[in-house]
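Deliverable D5.2: sample structural annotation.
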Amino acid sequence: MPPSTFDTVVNVLHTQFNVPREQLTPQTTLPALGLDSLALMEFVFAVEDRFSLRIPEERLDPRQAELTLADVCAALDEGRAEQVAAAA
């Protein structure tokens, strides 16, 4: 069974940005990760690359203070669903 979107996002944050896994929940906001603005942009690019898709900035702007990891996962899942629908 492939890992869930959240598990993949947690893995990216932990392995590439050294964020402790125990700090990561779906409700964790992006500012709470302790990453500067450049690292937040790099995080978005890293998860987009991991899922081989691009998410429009208006849908997933890491500068939004209230954006949570659940929001990131929802945007990724929507992007993946759109890819599947376009391929059908």
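Annotation notes: The two ends are 23 Å apart (CA to CA). Residues 69-87 form the longest helix (19 residues).
The annotation will be released with the project's public dataset once the embargo ends.
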